[in-house]
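Run log // design_07
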């Protein structure tokens, strides 16, 4: 005897959880991205000498933000198991004989 209604309700629960989790990441990415961009934008302005006007400055900033977002998306897709990468720097002293 199979319990198809139980399986469907569990499947719906997991699917709904996945959708909410994805939405939470999408909605909070702008807030999480504010601090790194706050550090990178002055360097961008200094390197490109953005004194040409407000429109040019905003266009360059938006393109830069889009490129950085694409880079983070590529990194997220290319590194499927982040736990292995996170533990790598902490294993460095053990491999070199340090404390």
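design_07 sequence
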């Amino acid at each position: 005897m199979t319990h198809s209604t139980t399986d469907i309700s569990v499947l719906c629960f997991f699917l709904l959880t996945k959708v909410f989790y994805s939405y939470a990441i999408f909605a909070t990415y702008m807030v999480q991205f504010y601090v790194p961009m706050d550090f990178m934008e002055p360097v961008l302005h200094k390197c490109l000498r953005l004194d040409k006007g407000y429109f040019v400055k905003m266009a360059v900033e938006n393109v830069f933000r889009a490129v950085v977002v694409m880079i983070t998306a590529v990194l997220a897709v290319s590194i499927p198991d982040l736990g292995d990468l996170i533990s790598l720097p902490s294993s460095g002293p053990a491999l070199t004989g340090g404390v």
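Helices lie at 4-48, 54-78, 82-96.
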